[in-house]
Amino acid sequence: MIIKILDPSKNATYLWLPVYFYDEPFQFQILSSIIELVFYISCFHLMTISLYVMLKVQIFHRNLYILYIPMFCVWYGLIAGKLITIAYRLKFVDLDYELGEHIAMWTDDQAKMLHVSSLRGLELLIFGGFVQWHYMYTVVYGILGVAAERAIASVLIENYETNTQLYIPIALTIITQFLAISTSLSVLFHKASVFLSHLPWIISCSLGALAYLFIKIVNENFQKQITNPRRKRLFTISQQFQVKENLRALRLGTRLVFVVFFYVAFVSFGMFALAFDLVSSAYCHFVENFLFLNPYPICFTAMLTIPHWRKHFQNACFTWRLVKSAWTKPKTSTTSVEISTTKKLEAETDLYFRQLNESWI
Description:
The chain is mainly α.
């Protein structure tokens, strides 16, 4: 959605928001919003359970958690931004004009822009758009930050596990958040072109791929040395654990990369199809919600990849317990028979020993 602000001097200012509004009957908008809220609540449950399991069963280094957790937590802000959009869509926020249909991610067509003379009443919508941009770029830069942390851990293998200093994850978190916020503001206020807005994830993916190869080669080499009985280098227990941790993180990261690539490919195709009117505007609902519902494939992939996480996730997940209880055969009758049999044997045993005791008196 592009907002064009015309001041009295006829100078135009543009705002670029990643929000969508549809030209649909109001009843259908209510229905679609209810369906979206149901999926968001389910996704909220899944995300919360995943965070709980990751914090309860900590199988990675503390520094990795300091980088990972904020990336997951900003999803809650993303949903808050979406709820603001729904409030405007259902006209819970009163405006003096109609917002109209806005399904183009970016456009130069003046007819597809929202023309206003003031931002009065649009403050919440702008904030919601910023939150959504911030989430996207937090993930983009956050992945690069995680890759950098694992690369540093591979280089500083001598004492990284035993080092209690937090300056590395804190510095990486500050840098990634600074980049995410500054990039989000630049895109929001249209200080960056369409190409520049895509440049961060292109650079991050390229650097992340190089970091992935570096971490993989270095740690596989360490693993060969550890398993070699004739090795000349001595690896401490903490260093061996760190190598296994890096390889475990790579296995998890590889699966997540395929999931993210599928997501990016689907959304990119959807945006391309919408831009050239290859599909109807209703398809935009699916493209938009693919961003908000990304915890479904990501959390399931993460939770089911790590065996320790899988067990606790299945026990904590409400949906899993419902399915498990539905497919589990009731054992009430068998249990009652076993209990009655046990009590009968106990009574007979007590009677036997009482009779035996009395016979010796």
